[in-house]
Design a protein that fits this description.
heterodimer; A: 313 residues; mainly alpha; globular; B: 302 residues; MetI-like fold; 0% strand
């Protein structure tokens, strides 16, 4: 187990180093002069020269890269041109709101997706299976921001159950939760659709295995077969899709945040993009991608706990 | 093992193109594949003939008839500039399908080549490629496309390139793992034995036989590409107005959701139809092209 843990961590280090490199080159995708791009057409020569010096644009590409890496290691991802604050601080400040959305969405997704996937697999071919799979097909086919708009229309304007705004200035946690509910339900539903589809096919695969047939033939009750034998063996692919969807919801949170006017990393990045505050965009991409890799590493370790065969691989 | 078995094991399998033609003939009975193909054909026709089908010029504003409700003159009403929503949605089909096909073509070509070379070459080439693929996969696809579009500027070309780059590592990863299962098969060894060069083996035998599962992945990624383009356009970072796209029509209708909900809602239905078409096509192709990947999914669905 220790060796497996070590391999996971080594892999993590390499990947994070790679992410820093990709984030550096993303900045190079700006056509022309990045300083000009960030400061706009009316920038003075002095401010352009100052920003070029700060970004190290007057040096060779290799030097620029090493400078970027050295700063990133110290947690310096540059400063926001718009606010003058450290880019990393801006991102960290907007992180709690995003994490609240991502985790509550994931909670809804798992609570909704896994049971309905199991139900569809166990009742394969019945109307319940068809109904669940049709709803899931809708969930993966409608864009998440459209689902958000439709939910606002239905639950806020027609039924008046939830507020249309995804956040409130009121500090009370009950109010914040009330405002969080609709965005979390929308994100959760769209992720639940993926989870339900995958849970269904993973369960079907296991339920068709010989050992399940043997267990049934031996007269072991259905409930026990499904939950003890089948679900446990279907757990690794289900966990895998939960990891993938977590990454997906971090990336798509920007859309949910836009629809519900919620603060978060996504809306901070969107503002930064529109203001051409590229260092802030870069910091956001770096932070979110690192978050995804951390989640994946945790899941990899978890797979090793669930399935001892994977540790040897 | 009988002599016949060995012979069939050594024989080069029929090319995927002939397989494709045969399976298409045999399996258009597959409901998912048939419905997906039908929907896609319909969308293609709409995209091709949109300028002629559209009842009004989609860019023509009419300030005396803004925010008209649904009527026989304007089936889906008009927007805040008096433009006919139905005409805009019909024309929006063009952008979505362009993005879908261009992204698939680019990521399929690049991903197939990279994945095939990595898997076939093995050794350090494979290890380095794998590390790079892993790194690129760590970026949420939509976020990566967003950052690239932000850097390159908003245009149809930027969106296509950004989404294609986000998808290429996914295709390459699948391609490599399929190539690994083909490499040890006897017909590859026999091709080498009769003196075929490595490149020729790769080109003539490895890639064609590894294509089916990769085509499935690419079809599904067309669906995701449509969603990504819609998301970028919704945020105002994709194709710029006044060119209508389903994403920016939803954005236009966003502030009017209480008074004229059909502007946003109908564009969303179009996106869903296109995505369902590609997903059904992908599921259907998986069942027919690639029996090894076949699962009990898809069939129970429809």
């Amino acid at each position: 187990m220790l060796g497996y843990l070590g391999r996971c961590l080594a892999h993590l280090m390499v990947t994070v180093a790679g992410i820093v490199t990709v984030a550096f080159f993303l900045m190079r995708a700006i056509p022309g002069d990045p300083a000009q791009y960030m400061l706009g057409d009316y920038a003075t020569q002095e401010s352009l020269a100052a920003l070029r010096a700060q970004l190290g644009l007057d040096r060779s590409l290799v030097e620029q890269y090493l400078l970027f890496v050295a700063r990133a290691v110290q947690g310096d991802l540059g400063t926001s041109v718009a606010t003058g604050q450290a880019a990393l601080t801006e991102i960290i400040d907007s992180l709690p709101a995003s994490l609240a959305l991502a985790f509550s969405g994931l909670f809804v997704a798992v609570a909704l997706g896994v049971p309905s996937g199991i139900a569809a697999a166990v009742r394969q071919g019945t109307w319940l299976d068809v109904a669940i799979m049709l709803v899931a097909l809708g969930g993966i086919s409608f864009p998440v921001f459209w689902l958000g708009l439709a939910a606002i229309l239905l639950f806020s304007h027609k039924l008046g159950i939830f507020p249309a705004l995804g956040s409130s200035s009121d500090a009370g946690w009950l109010t914040s939760l009330h405002h969080l509910a609709l965005p979390a339900l929308v994100l959760g539903f769209s992720v639940a659709a993926y989870i339900a589809r995958l849970t269904r096919s993973a369960m079907l695969e296991v339920l068709n295995q010989d050992y399940v047939r043997v267990a049934r033939a031996m007269g072991i009750p259905d409930r026990r077969v499904v939950y003890r034998l089948a679900l446990r063996n279907a757990l690794v692919p289900i966990l895998a899709v939960i990891g993938v969807t977590f990454a997906w919801s971090l990336g798509n949170a920007i859309l949910i945040e836009a629809v519900f006017s919620r603060p978060g990393v996504g809306s901070t990045m969107l503002k930064a993009i529109l203001a051409r505050d590229y260092q802030l965009v870069q910091a956001g991409v770096l932070a979110l991608a690192t978050g995804v890799v951390l989640t994946n590493t945790l899941l990899d370790i978890l797979y090793g706990v669930i399935d001892p065969r994977l540790r040897a691989a | 093992m009988s002599a016949d078995d060995r012979a069939s094991d050594l024989a080069v399998p029929p090319t995927p193109w002939r397989q494709l033609a045969e399976t298409l003939r045999d399996h258009l009975r597959h409901p998912g594949l048939a419905i997906g193909t039908g929907l896609l054909a319909l969308l293609l026709l709409v995209a091709l003939f949109a300028p002629w089908i559209a009842p009004y010029p989609p860019l023509k504003t009419n300030m005396s008839n803004t925010l008209a409700p649904m009527s026989s003159a304007h089936w889906l009403g008009t927007d805040q500039f008096g433009r006919d929503v139905l005409s805009r949605i019909l024309l929006g089909t063009q952008v979505s399908l362009q993005v879908a096909f261009a992204v698939v073509a680019l990521s399929l070509t690049a991903g197939t080549l990279i994945g095939a070379i990595a898997g076939f070459a093995g050794g350090w080439i494979e290890r380095i490629t794998l590390v790079i693929i892993d790194i690129l996969l760590a970026f949420p696809g939509f976020l990566f496309a967003l950052a690239l579009v932000a850097a390159r500027g908003s245009s149809l070309e930027s969106v296509i390139i950004a989404v294609a780059i986000a998808f290429t590592p996914r295709v390459a990863a699948v391609m490599r793992s399929v190539v690994l299962t083909i490499k040890p098969r006897p017909f590859i060894e026999s091709s080498r034995a009769i003196g075929m060069s490595e490149w020729r083996v790769l080109w003539r035998h490895v890639i064609p036989n590894a294509l089916p599962p990769v085509i499935v992945v690419a079809t599904v990624s067309a669906a995701t590409a449509i969603l990504a383009e819609a998301g970028l356009s919704f945020l105002g970072l994709g194709v710029q107005p006044p060119t209508p796209t389903w994403g920016n029509i939803i954005a236009d209708g966003n502030s009017l959701i209480t008074t004229n909900p059909w502007i946003s809602l109908s564009a969303g239905f179009c996106i869903a139809i296109a995505v369902i078409a590609f997903n059904l096509l992908g599921d259907g192709l998986r069942d027919t092209l690639d029996p090894q990947m076949k699962r009990q999914t898809g069939r129970g669905l429809l």
